[in-house]
G-protein coupled receptors family 1 profile domain-containing protein
Amino acid sequence: MATNADPLVQDLLTRFRMYSSFGVVVVISNMLVIIVHMSHKEMAKKYILFTLLSVAELINGTSFIVTGVGREIQIHIGTYFKPLKVSECLMWFPWPTLLVFAGQLPAAMNLMLATERVIAVCTPNWYRHVWTWHHKALLGGFGYLICFVGYGVAVWASHLSDHINLTRICAVMEATGIMYGSIHFALVSLAYVVSFVVLLVIFIVTHRGKKPTPGELRRQKILFTVVGVSVIFVSFPNMILILNEWQFIDAGALFVGISYCMYATSSTFNLFIYLAFRKEFRNHFLVLLRIRKKQHHGSSVVVVPITQLSQIQRPFTSQVTRSR
């Protein structure tokens, strides 16, 4: 029986603690995005697909935390190296289900965001005058529905498999079977690649015609960056997992853990991408942090740094003093 002093166990513990740590960062960063969007009436509707993407990334972060903590508990109570069936892996522990959704939901939402851009470019008049946040919500809901169907297939595949797992790591492949797991990771990677190619084609087409508006150009930059980061940081760990499971490579436990943490890293970048490319997001984020305050001028709202408030208020105070 392996003990905590064994090198393999030490590598596993390091790997699982990395999962938990990265998961916390992912949860915090995406919670901030959701709070900024939902606390602003216009952004809550305008960026509902991005909010649903952040919810998907939040589930991804939660899966990292639950996976890391759950597996470490199995090691400490001495049951990690006890065999169990594939279906038992999926049904006995919470993290396999979370891992399935954590892989599929962000990929599906990136695909839905790319789909919206296709609709905007192919039917600009209809998109401008008819397309509303209700249509965006339906599109996002369709992406989530696809993932629930995918999970249903995962449950079915796990009950078909008669494979016995030698450990209770219960990753996607161990909990659903090697065939479903391989297809799962391949389709997730393919979804990001397809989204990126679609956005690239849209970028080329729109620039060949009339020059896109600054708003459209900004939206394209945001989506390019979001999807491009995911292609790099999701496709590589997925490839490592598939090759390792099919024994084309012999990756150690720690190397697999480090590779998979790249997946978590991609889920933290969206916050910084929005701060860099979306001025309204950045302004409202600073307002919520009390770094900036809102000034109301009639019906408009102006956001100014707190350091400038004294300069704004001083002339007003002098005027009031003179009037007295």
Summary: Residues 7-38 form the longest helix (32 residues). The chain has two domains: 7-289, 292-324. Residues 297-301, 315-324 have pLDDT under 50 and may be disordered.
